[in-house]
């Protein structure tokens, strides 16, 4: 099919872009990797496409105030290979799983976050790291924490006349470790289940957080510090990865039963998604914890 007729504008500044978004039926175009198929199948019929690729400040990738700031038109592949992105290891771990290289060469980080597909990797990364979304509108700029940003499947707090101008990911500190894993039938397909993991180890204290995707209508984030501490008490202070994975198995099963709330479909049943999630959780939490130990010892981030 072909897209329904629409007008096309290419503003040169953020303010001009916001003015164009004030027109009835306007829609933002950045990478277009999600929007163009929707247009082609006529699942969406915007009256105006506002192409933001001519706005220089929206393409920036910068590090400031302990954050990696990714602009609205910054390509996923550019972020993946940007030197500053090495300071956000979880983002670096997740990006190779997003589609294929050609898709990442056009798709944007902010576009994926704003699209809020329940099976997408980058919303889960943002949720796990408690990233900050910078949303601009006619009434000014507001900062929204990731925990308040996603409201449902392909639904966020962004208003019809607003623009997600930037996502701010906190850079990793020594003592932090990260894990990321997903299962899809083919690499590049949408995940049947996936997990993003953040762990911080300081002395005897350990803090752990997970975000699961592909299992609900939005990323599901949980604090799993208590479960990891219990597993460590069983596995010992310096466990190997297999030891820790075994100690985490029962906890992972319980967490998976709690977070998987999507019904079965043609791709996977609820029970199958629970098994996938539990397996990914035990593996990635174990790996993230061991990375956090090495990070604390070496004074680096992983």
Short description:
The chain is of the alpha+beta class.
Model description:
The chain has 302 residues and is of the alpha+beta class. It has three domains: 7-51, Uridine Diphospho-n-acetylenolpyruvylglucosamine Reductase, domain 2; 58-170, Uridine Diphospho-n-acetylenolpyruvylglucosamine Reductase, domain 3 (2-Layer Sandwich), CATH 3.30.465; 176-298, CO dehydrogenase flavoprotein, C-terminal domain (Enolase-like, domain 1), CATH 3.30.390.50. 37% of the residues lie in helices and 25% in strands. The strands form four sheets. The chain has a five-stranded antiparallel β-sheet. α6 (109-115) packs across α7 (121-129). The longest helix has 29 residues, at 270-298. It is globular, with a radius of gyration of 20 Å. The mean pLDDT is 95.
Q: Compute the number of helices.
A: 11
Low-confidence parts? none
Radius of gyration, CA atoms, in whole angstroms: 20 Å
| Structural shape | globular
Could you give the order of strands across the largest sheet?
4-5-10-6-7
Helices and strands, in order, run as: EHEHEEEHHHHHEEHEEEEEEEHHH
Strand content: 25-35%
Give the helices and strands, then pairings.
Elements: E1 7-9, H1 14-21, E2 26-29, H2 35-40, E3 48-51, E4 61-64, E5 67-71, H3 76-81, H4 89-94, H5 101-106, H6 109-115, H7 121-129, E6 132-137, E7 140-145, H8 146-149, E8 150-152, E9 155-156, E10 163-170, E11 176-183, E12 193-202, E13 205-213, E14 220-223, H9 225-235, H10 241-259, H11 270-298
Parallel strand pairs: 1-3, 2-3
Antiparallel strand pairs: 4-5, 5-10, 6-7, 6-10, 8-9, 11-12, 12-13, 13-14
Helix pairs in contact: 6-7, 9-10, 10-11
């Amino acid at each position: 099919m072909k897209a329904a007729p629409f007008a096309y504008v290419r503003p040169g500044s953020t303010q001009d872009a916001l003015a164009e978004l004030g027109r009835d039926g306007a829609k933002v175009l950045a990478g277009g990797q999600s929007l163009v198929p929707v247009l082609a199948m006529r699942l969406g019929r915007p009256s105006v496409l506002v192409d933001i690729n001519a706005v220089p400040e929206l393409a920036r990738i910068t590090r400031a105030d302990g954050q990696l700031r990714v602009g609205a038109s910054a390509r996923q592949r550019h972020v993946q290979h940007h030197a500053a992105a090495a300071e956000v290891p979880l983002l670096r771990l997740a990006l190779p799983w997003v589609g294929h290289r050609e898709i990442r060469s056009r798709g944007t980080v902010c576009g994926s976050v704003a699209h809020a597909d329940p099976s997408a990797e980058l919303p889960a990364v943002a949720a796990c790291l408690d990233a900050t979304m910078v949303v601009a509108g006619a009434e000014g700029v507001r900062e929204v924490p990731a925990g308040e940003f996603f409201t449902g499947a392909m639904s966020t707090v962004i208003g019809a006349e607003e623009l997600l101008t930037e996502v701010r990911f906190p850079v990793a500190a020594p003592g932090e470790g990260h894990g990321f894993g997903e299962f899809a039938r083919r690499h590049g397909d949408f995940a049947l289940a996936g997990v993003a993991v953040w762990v911080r180890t300081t002395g005897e204290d350990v803090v752990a957080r997970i975000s699961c995707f592909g299992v609900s209508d939005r990323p599901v984030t949980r604090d799993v510090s208590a479960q990891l501490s219990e597993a460590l008490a069983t596995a010992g202070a310096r466990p190997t990865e297999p030891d820790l994975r075994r100690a985490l198995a029962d906890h992972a099963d319980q967490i998976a039963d709690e977070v998987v709330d999507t019904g079965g479909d043609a791709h996977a049943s609820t029970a199958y998604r629970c098994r996938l999630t539990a397996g990914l959780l035990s593996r990635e939490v174990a790996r993230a914890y061991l990375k956090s130990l090495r990070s604390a010892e070496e004074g680096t981030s992983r």
